[in-house]
Design goal:
The complex is a heterodimer of chains A (about 475) and B (about 450).
Chain A: H1 2-28, E1 49-55, H2 59-75, E2 79-85, H3 89-102, E3 108-111, H4 113-119, H5 129-132, H6 141-146, H7 149-153, E4 167-168, E5 174-179, H8 180-185, H9 205-215, E6 222-224, H10 227-238, H11 258-272, E7 276-278, H12 279-282, H13 287-290, E8 306-310, E9 331-335, E10 346-347, E11 352-355, H14 361-375, H15 378-388, H16 401-408, H17 417-427, E12 432-433, H18 441-457, H19 464-482
Parallel strand pairs in A: 1-2, 1-3, 6-7, 6-8, 10-12
Antiparallel strand pairs in A: 3-11, 4-11, 5-8, 5-9
Helix pairs in contact in A: 1-3, 2-15, 10-11, 10-18, 11-18, 18-19
Chain B: H1 3-26, E1 31-34, E2 40-43, H2 45-48, H3 80-83, E3 85-95, E4 98-102, E5 109-114, E6 117-118, H4 130-142, E7 144-150, E8 166-174, E9 181-182, H5 183-189, E10 194-195, H6 204-217, E11 236-237, H7 240-245, H8 247-250, E12 254-265, E13 268-275, E14 280-287, H9 294-297, E15 303-313, E16 317-321, E17 336-339, E18 347-348, H10 351-356, E19 364-377, E20 388-393, E21 399-404, E22 408-409, E23 412-413, H11 416-419, E24 423-433, E25 436-441, E26 447-449
Parallel strand pairs in B: 5-8, 11-12, 18-19, 21-25
Antiparallel strand pairs in B: 1-2, 3-4, 3-7, 4-5, 6-10, 7-8, 8-9, 12-13, 12-15, 13-14, 15-16, 15-17, 19-20, 19-24, 20-21, 22-23, 24-25, 24-26
Helix pairs in contact in B: 5-6
The chains are: A alpha/beta (about 475), B alpha+beta (about 450).
Chain lengths: ~475, ~450
């Protein structure tokens, strides 16, 4: 509770300070009060300009970025890209919010839709359509069409579809990893839906995890990494209310309903019977449980046999090669189970890039030239994908021989698991969804994640009223945080 | 001598004095130094002074964020792993944001990852500002009178996302002081770490302010300057022999060499190459890390061109790390496959060779007719569970240590009975453990029972 209050205070301070500062800055700088104007024509800067770019890349990915910055500088030696690894996605968000208050924000930043929704309150997010449609420096129709449509549309989901507040950088989704060796040895089928329609519904996840528990009672058959993703994905698959982007705060958070309680109840029974765990309950990424080959203090090796996690984390879902060169087991990858075959949904993840207004528009122009260079380069997209496990956002990247070769090496061991994951990820493309982004949407996401954990792991003696109160409390916190 | 002249002279002297530190800290080109194999190696800032050309003192006029939060120090004589708070003692310094401590009762080793911060890497692979961060943490805790850990959530001692390390706020009391200082926040405030979900932590507000201050004051990694103890010089192309014969000279240097991969182990590979002059092979361990393309390149039997940073690390020994890989337009710095399916024959050596010839380290060797006289099996909750140390005697009566990984035969773990009292021929990598030579076996096929 103390942590929650502290967190609430911190968020309130950040948001209040942020909004106050935004107003102050608007008073000081008339350019900050609105759009830069759709008729503005932009040019390629000719003088020396420095563009700051905040991201989360570790060294492996930074190396790829640096390589392409060098290529960029061969064409535009006057534009310096000051790229900085800030930390995780939340750290980028917090740093940008802090710097927006002081008017020192970077020109470019990694973002998720929730972040952009928050930044928009400052009126310092650049409508990229001004650049995209610019006759001099804009994108050609072919370049626009080269983006995978679903990813491109993410930048338009902020209430006014004529505005484009981000461009996709790289993407991932959730996939289901399973111990193929164990499945094959025990004649198990790969599940494609969650709940059993009958006692012998062999392709339901429910049937399979119960069967695994019968075969190996000490196992925890299923691990699901992101509780928030799980909750939100279920609401999409079941078409049950989650959130909506409306003005009235009380009406934005819709997740407290009987349908959602129903699936939580189901998962609760799985958890209580030792059939599943999640990252918060397990205390670490569940890939650790999936790939575990070492005994605990009691001498038992506890496994899971199914792990649902990010497609970009495929290499972590593959057990380490033994020193004798063999793998303890083969890993299969499949799409996540669905609730309704006619309404397949998987969550779309991965960073986009947003542009923030600078006092000197030349900096924004330079930032655009760099953004265009990076995001329309199939070579960069392919190379970044191969280094990261994320999938490219350009169709043309998939046509490169090197990327085709990469995908052709897809297999169920560490050598080819990233490629295999990318393939499965692409197969699910038509099922991708993103939730509405608005002020408070990230609170909703945080709260339903915690709610799911609290619900499924509550003591077996918990009453229905106590369990339902968890939903009420989560809703109340969302409202309080956003009033 | 008029006043103007004196003033001009003074200003020139001042300018020179002011510039002197800049010249010192900006020196990039490596000096040349003699090496034991007759070649020349670069001498970098690191090898000049491995314990620190980086010399940072915080401007006392800046706010002291480390004391803006307070530790409730009542009853700290408890185990952090059980209650989420307690006094600890250092077992091992790993890097800027990870230290291994013993809990209060010295019963549990706590691998503590500092909450809210992320320092650049300085082990496994080395990144700019990684070494300064590592030195900073060590310097603070070495001089501490007392150290305490505190969990991010009251009363809990949570594991981090790997499930192996504890997340902790690290507090220390400097010698002669009664004030507990928060090291996580201090590191942030001195610009030696990035944030890591900082704002949502227990001391999020102060920690964020510390980070913002470091950025605005342009301290250390936010200074826009190069890390003075990181090697930014040109890549040195050399042979494995030159590299391993001159470890200290090449420490922290970017190097490029060619060699054949003989074995995979622990996320890395053993690489070796033959030297015509000495008619001997030389080997080195190369850490591949978690790069998703690494498994495509680091394959036994491949002859590679490898570019990475040599690092003589107190935790992992001498190794090369920081490799990069590309399937599209690889640069000179990317790892390249020169040849596949290269067959490497192990060098047949004697017990004396293994025990006394350090130059064999990390190469593939073979020792025949070893009589197993005693066996120790490791029992632990780590990957080394089931690994064995075989103490053997050679035909000429010398003692040889053979270390196996956990070996399996038809799905079953191989036990001591398999080797007990037998005479064996072994092929493996010549390595050292705690300074003592040993032969490391990786598969059962590398060991023939006679």
């Amino acid at each position: 509770m103390k942590k929650f209050i502290a967190l609430m205070l911190l968020v309130c301070m950040l948001v209040c300070g942020f909004l106050t500062a935004c107003n102050n800055n608007s008073d000081n700088n008339p350019d900050d009060t609105g759009s830069q104007g759709s008729k503005t024509s932009h040019t390629v800067p000719t003088g020396d300009v420095t563009v700051t770019f905040y991201h989360t890349m570790g060294k492996n990915l930074s190396d790829v970025l640096v390589k392409y910055i060098a290529e960029f500088n061969k064409v535009y030696p006057n534009i310096t890209i000051d790229h900085q690894t800030i930390g995780g996605y939340d750290d980028v968000r917090d740093q940008v919010i802090t710097e927006l208050q002081a008017g020192k924000q970077p020109a470019l930043a990694y973002c998720y839709p929730d972040h952009v929704a928050t930044y928009l309150r400052s009126k310092k997010v650049v409508d990229l359509n001004e650049y995209i449609n610019d006759e001099t420096v804009g994108l050609t129709q072919a370049q626009i069409d080269d983006f995978i449509a679903g990813y491109y549309a993410e930048g338009q989901q902020f209430g006014d579809t004529s505005k484009m507040y981000s461009l996709p950088f790289s993407k991932s989704t959730e996939v289901m990893y399973y111990n193929k060796t164990f499945f094959d040895n025990n004649g198990l089928k790969v599940p494609d839906h969650w709940f059993s329609a009958s006692a012998n519904d062999e392709t339901s996840l429910e049937y399979v995890i119960k069967k695994i528990k019968e075969i190996e009672p000490t196992s925890i058959p299923l691990g699901y990494d992101s509780e928030a993703n799980w909750f939100i994905t279920m609401t999409e698959q079941l078409k049950t209310p989650y959130t909506q982007a409306v003005d009235k705060v009380q009406d934005r958070f819709l997740f407290n309903n009987e349908k959602n309680i129903e699936f939580c109840e189901k998962f609760r029974s799985w958890c209580q019977n030792g059939l599943m765990t999640t990252q918060a309950i397990y205390g670490g990424y569940t890939s650790g449980l999936f790939t575990n080959t070492t005994a605990n203090e009691e001498g038992k090796v506890i496994h899971s046999y199914i792990s649902i996690g990010s497609s970009a984390g495929a290499t972590y879902q593959c057990p380490a090669k033994s020193d004798d060169g063999s793998y303890p087991f083969e890993v299969g990858i499949a799409t996540i189970p669905q609730a309704d075959a006619s309404n397949k949904k998987v969550i779309s993840q991965g960073p986009s890039i947003t542009m923030l207004k600078q006092k000197d528009q030349t900096v924004n122009d330079a930032a655009w030239i760099f953004l265009k260079f990076l995001l329309t380069s199939p070579e960069f997209q392919a190379e970044f994908s191969m280094a990261s496990g994320y999938v490219p956002v350009l169709k043309s990247a998939f046509e490169l021989d090197a990327y085709k070769e990469f995908l052709s090496g897809a297999n169920m061991t560490k050598d080819g698991i990233a490629a295999l994951s990318a393939k499965i990820c692409m197969e699910q493309e038509s099922a991708y969804f993103t939730s509405p982004a608005f002020i408070g949407s990230s609170d909703a996401r945080d709260e339903v994640g915690k709610l799911l954990v609290a619900y499924i792991s509550a003591a077996s003696t918990a009453t229905q009223d106590e369990l339902k109160k968890l939903f009420v409390d989560a809703y109340n916190r969302c409202v309080t945080l956003n009033q | 001598m008029n006043k103007n002249f004196i003033l001009k002279l003074l200003s020139v002297i001042s300018a020179v004095l002011l510039c002197l530190p800049v010249f010192v800290s900006c020196r990039k080109e490596p000096k040349k130094t003699d090496t034991t194999d007759g070649t020349t190696a670069p001498t970098t800032e690191q090898s000049d002074d491995k314990e620190g050309v980086w010399d940072y003192t915080r401007d006392p006029s800046l706010p002291d964020f480390a004391t803006m939060v307070t530790l409730n120090d009542s009853n700290l004589k408890q185990d952090f792993d059980k209650t989420g708070r307690g006094l600890v003692t250092v077992e091992q310094y790993i890097d800027g944001d990870t230290v291994h401590f013993w809990n209060y009762s010295r019963t549990v080793l706590i691998k503590a990852r500092f909450v809210a911060i992320d320092t650049p890497e300085s082990t496994g692979k080395v990144e700019p500002w990684g070494k300064p961060a590592s030195k900073y943490t060590k310097a603070k805790l070495e001089k501490a009178a007392e150290i305490a850990l505190e969990s991010n959530v009251e009363g809990e001692s949570p594991l981090d996302s790997t499930g192996d390390r504890y997340l902790a706020w690290v507090w220390y009391k400097p010698q002669g002081s009664d004030t507990w200082r928060n090291l996580n926040i201090e590191i942030l405030s001195d610009g030696l770490a990035m944030g890591k979900s900082t704002s949502s932590t227990r001391y999020g507000t102060v920690a964020m302010n510390a980070l913002t201050s470091a950025r605005s004051e342009k301290l250390n990694m936010y200074s826009g300057k190069k890390d003075p103890i990181f090697y930014y010089g040109d890549t040195v192309e050399l042979s494995i022999k030159s590299l391993v014969m001159n470890k200290s000279a090449y420490n922290a240097t970017k190097v490029r060499f060619e060699g054949v991969v003989t074995k995979e182990s622990g996320g890395g590979i053993y690489v070796e190459s033959f030297d015509e002059d000495t008619q001997q092979k030389y080997g080195v361990y190369v850490y591949g890390g978690f790069a998703s393309l690494a498994p495509k390149f680091l394959v036994p039997g491949y002859r590679l061109s490898i570019t990475g940073t040599a690092d003589d690390n107190e935790n992992f020994g001498f190794q090369v790390s920081g490799l990069s890989f590309s399937l599209i337009n690889p640069t000179d710095d990317d790892t390249k496959i020169l040849e596949k399916d290269v067959v490497t024959e192990p060098a047949l050596i004697t017990a004396d060779d293994l025990n006394n010839n350090e130059t064999l380290e990390n190469t593939l060797v073979r020792l025949n007719d070893l009589k197993v006289v005693s066996i120790y099996t490791t029992h632990s909750t780590t990957d080394s569970d089931g690994a064995m140390t075989l103490t053997c005697t050679s035909q000429d009566g010398k003692t040889v240590t053979v270390r196996t990984v956990k070996l399996t035969l038809e799905g079953q773990t191989v036990t001591e009975e398999y080797f007990s009292g037998k005479t064996i021929d072994c092929t493996g990598i010549a390595t050292t453990f705690n300074g003592k030579p040993q032969l490391k076996l990786f598969t059962l096929a590398d060991c023939i029972i006679k």
